[in-house]
Write a structure and sequence with these properties.
By secondary structure, this protein is mostly beta strands. The protein is built from two helices and ten strands.
Amino acid sequence: MFNCKLLFAKRYRGTFMFAFVNFKTQECYEWFFQFSLKDPWWIPKYDSYYLNDGKWPLAGWLFFYFGRHTRGAVIPCEQSEISEGKKPLVDKAGNLYVIYNLPEEELARKFRRTILRYNCEVGIEKDGDNVTIINTVRSKRWISIFLKK
């Protein structure tokens, strides 16, 4: 959590959402907590495609529900690459970053799986309208031995 930065916090009725940037894993993600008295889950369960038209996972029991969603990749950039009117993210060392939103949910899940298994440097290549996310692997994480294949 020392390499993280809180981007924003929102509340809509009984749902609270917090957006974070992790500069170590180069990931932007959201945590959400929901409190609802309608239609409780009497047995604890996990639904991987629940909120937001089946894009966000949700786990919960009774009236309390929790979830985590990968929003995008955090890409290092130069001052000249930032378009006018956009504000870059700045880490503690003063490096500049921009967020690239991942367009598909399955791509976001694969990105999350990759950064959990490997120490990576994330970059992008643009070729016209096509954008390619490049993960350059530095080493395998020790925790990856506990993850499913």
